[in-house]
Amino acid sequence: MFLAIKEIKREKLRYGLIVLMIFLISYLIFILSSLSIGLASENTQALESWDAQAVVLNKNANVSMNQSVLTKSDLKNATIGKNEALVGQTAVVVKNKKRPQISAQFIGLKKNQFIYHAQEIIAGRKAKTKQEVVADQTFKIKGYKLGDKLALNGSKKKYMIVGFAKNAKINIAPIVYGSLNSWKTLRQGMPDMQASAIISRNSNYKYHHADSKTYPIKTFINKLPGYTAQNMTFELMIGFLFVISLIIIAVFMYILTMQKMHNFAVMRAQGIPSGTLVNATVSQAVILVVVGVVIGLAAMLLTAKALPAAVPMSFTPAIMLSGAGGMLLTGIIGSLIPIRSILKVDPAKAIGE
Amino acid sequence: MAVIELKNVQKIYGKGAAEVKALKNINFTANKGEVVLIMGPSGAGKSTFLTIAGSLQKPTSGEVLINGQNIAHLTTKQSNHLRLNQIGFVLQAYNLVPFLTVKEQFELVDRVKKQGNIDQATLTKLLKQLGITALVNKYPGELSGGQQQRVAIARALYANPEILLADEPTASLDSKNVDEVGQLFKNLAKNYDKAVLLVTHDPRLEQYADHIYEMMDGEMTQTK
């Protein structure tokens, strides 16, 4: 550690540039991870707040709640207990003369079922009549107020906002919670349709019927439009960044080690144990990575504060720990690459033999 | 007893047609309190002699004895330990760690060798004797060639070795400084009871030597 610190202090510009590279990479990793988790969360926020474990859909709906319709005959043998709820989903365009137009998902609920009770109201109250709705907090951020009357998909019938809820997004779109009867009106489908899906909090829930199929929540989430592709893209980018950081650290440490071979030879000639030199190299990498990552974290915190709430970033301790841990690990692996050269340095080189 | 002794030492590089005999049956002895000069032109085998006497590499055959112990077959770790404790090197150039101040060069020795180094009072006296007391907070890059050489001597002596090996110690010095360094080595040998081996082709150092060996084509002859 002594040699590592002394060298960094003496060669501030050289090591400052390496820290800068590590900072930029870690900052990018933190930003991408936060965006990835933030976007993933906006896809599944509502499902998580409902604690959904299984979803029953029309088997021809391609695992899409929006495409699914369950009729009276589809549901005739279904058991709807305290852990199940009928849900109707349809895409709507929300309009109000004084407010910006918003694309949303209408979720129709029954008042006596668990999802209605699971709504996380942050202002106002839950909807009690067919004409009342609860909107996601996105509407509040965009200027909507309690009491605003909404036209859904250009309907003449108006729906009044009586509450705002948090964690009410599905597939990135904000949710408008209303009644199942309102959903039937908006959906304008078959006369005997009852819901889009049965949502269950019980992971063992199964409903077998000719036209219906039960899916585990994981399957349902992975089939959300764009969800898997988006997550894989982020995972690949983050993975590549880790590999790039490993290569950068390894290359820098290797070049620095090669440049210092004469110094190492001199120290070996003087009897300095090779363990001391290896320790100096590894601890130097650890110091550089820790400083780079700490600056990256600080920059990330500042960025998170500066960004508008509309940017879907979720900056959690898990991201901090996994990002910092990953960088530290790649730094240590990178610094181990020139170790063989250090161990093999010939002390006779110190006197030109 | 001789502090360092080489008996029938040979060093051969390469094989077959590429074989080069760098040292041929070298017999050499040095005692504490003596300055011994190993002289000869470039390519005569002086540096090879120094690396073998200093346990930086092993001879092809023969014995290298330090205080009677044959060091020809020591492991890398044992060789390191020997150099750290019994042999001090003063190398031609760049032989100081460039990112450590003069004071920190000694601190590095303290960190790897906890006991047996010279005490603070002796170090102060040595620094004064070498005229480098005012340079302790400077980096090697901020020192002249002569100052670096003196610091390297102090650093080599700090671990309190019995043998001091110097490779071309006057290579970058003018005549006045050569005399100073020659006198300094003589004083170190006498006052600190060290065996000082100077590998050089500088005849100006001859007047300070107790013994002189000439090297030519890998062979060694004592001339004084």
Please give a structural write-up.
- The complex is a heterodimer of chains A (353) and B (224).
- With 353 residues, chain A is of the alpha+beta class.
- Chain A has two domains: 2-43 and 228-352, no CATH class; 54-202, no CATH class.
- Chain A contains eleven helices and 13 strands.
- Chain A has helices spanning 2-10, 12-50, 114-118, 137-141, 180-187, 217-222, 227-259, 261-269, 274-306, 317-336, 339-343; strands spanning 54-58, 70-71, 84-96, 99-109, 120-124, 132-136, 149-152, 158-166, 169-170, 173-179, 193-195, 197-200, 212-216.
- Chain A has a six-stranded mixed beta barrel.
- The radius of gyration of chain A is 29 Å and the shape is elongated.
- The mean pLDDT of chain A is 89.
- A six-stranded mixed β-sheet of chain B has the order 6-7-8-3-9-10. Chain B has a four-stranded antiparallel β-sheet with strand order 2-1-4-5, with helices on one face.
- By secondary structure, chain B is an alpha/beta fold.
- Chain B has helices at residues 46-53, 76-86, 102-112, 120-130, 145-158, 175-191, and strands at 4-13, 20-30, 35-39, 61-66, 69-70, 87-90, 163-167, 195-200, 211-216, 219-222.
- Chain B is globular, with a radius of gyration of 17 Å.
- Chain B is 32% helix and 26% strand.
- In chain B, helix 4 packs antiparallel against helix 5 (145-158).
- At the A-B interface, helix 1 and helix 8 of A face helix 1, helix 2 and helix 3 of B.
